[in-house]
Each structure stands twice: as C-alpha cells, then as structure tokens.
Design goal:
membrane, DUF389 domain-containing protein, Alpha-Beta Plaits, transmembrane helix, four-stranded antiparallel sheet, transmembrane, DUF389, alpha+beta
Length: about 300
C-alpha cells in the first residue's frame, strides 16, 4: 500500500476528503485541521492500495493541491488492518500489476539528471570496464556493469514514450548523450597514459579472449538487451531492487564503451566501431523493452490511457 499525505488549503479540504471517500481502495483517512504551518493548511492522510493510488493522485492534481499545498507518497511495507484488507479486495487486479505513474515518473526523473554524481559514476564505470578489457578480467567488467548508472535515463525515456510525453525524454537523453562521450573521453586519456607508461601492450586485445563478448554484435545482443530492459522496468515498477542488480550485470552498455576506448587507443578501429554498435544496440533495446512492458501490462495500459486523457 501507499500512504498519501496531503497539505490542503482549508477551502479545498472538503473536496479532498470527497475524493478519498469516494475512491475504492482508500482507507485510514485522517484529518488534522490547521496542522500545517508552511504551507499553511489542513493535513490529511490516507492509506491507498497500489491499484487505486494513480487515480487518487490524479484527483488531487485536478484540484490543484500540488500548486497550493503538497502531496507526498510513501510506501508501506507492512499494514495490519482489516480495513486495509477490505480496501485491497475493493479494487480489481493484483497490486504487483499496478503502476503508480506519478511515483515511477518521479523515480526515473531523479535518476536521469545530468549532474556531477551521474558523471562520476559513469566515468568510473567506463574506466573499470577498460581495466577489465586490458586485464582480460570478466569479473572487473561485471563490476563496471554494476557501477554504471545508465539504466535510470533509459527507463526515464521509456516512461516518457509510454505516457506520450516525449518532452520528458529530453533530460535523460541529454544525460546519456553528454555522459557517455565525457566518460569515454576521460577513459581515453587514462588509457593513453597507461599505454605510454607501458602498463599494457598495443596488442592487448589479442589476449583478451574472455571479454570478446563485449564487442561481438549479433542477434543475442538485442535479445539480451530486450530481456534485461523488460526485467529492469518490471523491477522499477514493483520496487524489486534485487532484480535490478541482475539487469545491471546483463547488458553490455558500459563495457562496450570501455572496450571501444581501448580498441581506439591501440588503433583497432574495427573493434572500436563494433563496440560502439554494441553500445547502441543495448541502449535502444533497453528503451524498447521498457516501453513494451509499460504498454502491455493490462493495469498499466488502463492507467496510461487515463494519464494522457484518452
């Protein structure tokens, strides 16, 4: 379930209560008149099932509550209440199939902003991948996959497409289009310095057989990207973080960027281009899979239609 707390201007409190009382799946409604100091207003709380959360939030947004007050949503891991059980039964569908679009949009937006932290993680991830290539170490490559922060922007693009709000894809697209070149440029500088210091030979790729999978583009490159992207989006929708870690170590995005840099450094432009193609295939595959997951889930499709006013 989700706990929704509303700070409402007093003149709209009755309308907020009407929304909460009229929606199935809402219970434990509380009211503290004048309970908020900044912004001033009444504090209203309610526990809402996942299946009902999106419609309740839509109603609160229609009242203009976010503009003049506030709406916060928190996840409830354990609820012991007969009223809560009744609220769950009052709403069709399974909680795991529900999509709280506002929550998903906020989460992906937070993880897809181009900032120092995002760039730092991406630079470190690509550098780790490059080290994994020159040392022929799949374990290091897997570590780079886990560190890479690129799934957040990819998921945000998929959500933007699913909700038919392409302008929401601008921020994550910028994060990727700026982040990867910057990370690869920083890695190239490090690779050149390492090569000049004779830390690895120019024919290093000839002995890197254990990481050849990174640059070899084939049908399974797209298949893995689609499967991982689907698993990742389901993980984000259902808040299953353990599954998301599995996604990170399945896709060849960051490793492909690191391999391309190493290949370019030693003058193997064929492998550099193949690695870049591998990067592109994985990025596109993850976005497509994420969009399909959101579009094909029955509850998600119903809510998506309401989200865009269809």
């Amino acid at each position: 379930m989700r706990h929704i707390r509303v700070i409402s201007p007093p003149e709209r409190t009755a309308a907020v209560l009407d929304i909460l009382r009229s929606r199935p799946g809402v219970t434990h409604i509380t009211l503290a008149p004048g309970g908020s100091i900044e912004p001033s207003g009444d504090v209203i709380g309610a526990d809402v099932t996942r299946e009902a959360a999106h419609r309740v939030l839509q109603g609160l947004e229609a009242l203009g509550i976010p503009a003049d007050g506030a709406v916060t949503v928190a996840s409830l891991d354990t609820v012991l209440s007969a009223a809560a059980d009744e609220a769950e039964r009052a709403v069709p569908g399974d909680p795991s199939d529900a999509v709280v679009w506002e929550e998903l949009t906020a989460r992906t937006r937070e993880e897809s902003t181009l900032n120092v932290t995002f760039l730092a993680f991406l630079v470190l991830a690509v550098m780790l991948a490059a080290v994994g290539v020159v040392t022929n170490s799949p374990v290091t490559v897997v570590g780079a996959m886990v560190v890479g922060p690129e799934f957040g922007p990819l998921a945000a693009i998929a959500v933007a497409l699913a909700t038919r709000r392409p302008h929401f894809a601008l921020r994550p697209s910028i994060a990727l289009l700026v982040g990867f070149p910057v990370a690869m440029a920083c890695t190239w500088i490090g690779a050149e310095l390492a090569l000049a210091a004779d830390l690895y030979p120019e024919d290093v790729l000839a002995s890197a057989a254990q990481v050849d999978f990174i640059y070899r583009v084939g049908p399974f490159s797209l298949i893995v990207a689609l499967l991982a992207g689907a698993a990742g989006m389901i993980s984000m929708v259902t808040a299953k973080s353990a599954a998301l870690v599995g996604v990170f170590i399945s896709v060849t995005t960051v490793p492909a960027a690191g391999y391309a840099v190493v290949a370019a450094t030693v003058g193997d432009w064929h492998r550099a281009l193949e690695s870049t193609a591998q990067l592109g295939v994985n990025l596109v595959g993850i976005v497509v899979a994420g969009f399909l997951v959101l579009a094909l889930r029955p509850a998600a499709w119903r809510d998506m239609r309401e989200q865009v006013g269809l």
